[in-house]
Amino acid sequence: MDETEFAELTEQHRRELRVHCYRFLGSLDEAEDLVQETFLRAWRGRAGYAGRASVRAWLYKIATNACLDFLERSPRVVPIVDLPTASGSHLAPRPAAAVPWLQPAPDDLLEAAISRETVELAFLAAVQYLSPRQRAVLILRDVVGWSAKETATALSTTPASVSSSLQRARAELKEQLPSRRTEWRASSSSEEREVVARYISALTTADDAAIAAVLSEDIRCSHQPGAGGHDGPEPTWYSGLNTVLEGWAPVLHGPRSMELRMVPVQANGGPAVATYLRFDGEFRAFGLNALRIADGRVAEVTTFVPAVFGAFGLPAVLQV
Description:
There is one protein chain. Helix 2 (14-25) packs parallel to helix 4, helix 3 (28-44) crosses helix 4 and helix 7 packs across helix 8 (159-176). The protein is 42% helix and 17% strand. Strands 1, 2, 3, 4, 5, 6 and 7 form a 7-stranded mixed sheet that branches. By secondary structure, the chain is of the alpha+beta class. It starts with a helix and ends with a strand.
C-alpha cells in the first residue's frame, strides 16, 4: 500500500492507540512517542499485513509490543516510601501521586466512548505496579476485551500463560486500588460544576468555613514531588479535614500567604483545577489539582507538577 492508503487505514485509530499506550505507561508524553513508534513499525511492516485480522487489532498488537520494548529498555519501579511525609496520614494504598511519572490527561485527548473507570488516575496508578507482561495481559483482556487466544497471539505466548498472568494481575491490581473504589459514583456534570465553583471560591477567598463545607471529613490529599510547593524527593499525602486545613493554612493565612487564581478543566473523566499563585506581581503555575467529588463534596485532591499545564493548553503565567 502507498502512503495515502496507509494513512486512510491507520489514522482513524490514532486517538484510541494513544489512550492504550497512556494506560500502559501512565505518561501522556511517552504515550505520544509510542503512538509514533507504532505507526513507524506498522509502515515498515505493512507488507506482512495479510488482512487476516482487522487493522485495529494489528495496530494494537504493534502498540502493545512497542510499549513492552520501551519498558524493557527503560525499566522503572514505583519508589517505596515507608512512611508518609505529613502527619495524620493513613492512606492505603498509596495514592496516584506516589507514581512519579504519572500525568493527568485532558478529556479532549481521550476517547469519548471509553469507560471512565479505565482512565481514572487511581486505575492508571495501580496498573503501574504490575510487571510489563502482566500489564499487557490485563489491559488486552479486561480493557480492550480480547480473548485469551487473541492476547496470546499478540504476545507470542500461550492462552494458558495468559490466563495465569491475568489471574496474578487482577490480584495485584486489587491490592493497589482503593478498597471502596467500586462504590464511587460519578457525579452529574451540573453537580460537579457547582462543587468545583464552591471549591474555587472558598480557596481564592481563603474562607476557612467555606473550605470546610466543600471538603469531605475524610478528604484525601496528595502531591507529586515538586507539586503544590512540595519540592522533596518523595511524594506527600495526608487525609482528614483538620489535617488538610492545617496543611493549607501557610499558603492561605500564614506570614507568606499568597493570592490564588484557579482555572477549571477536565482531566481523566473528572473535574480538575489549575492553580496559580501570585509571585512578584504575576500569577504563575503552581499545580494541577485533579478532584474526586462524592456526595456533593470534594473527597480527594491529587496535585501534579506545573509541567502538565501544557497538555491542557494552560499558560505558565496567567494573564488577569
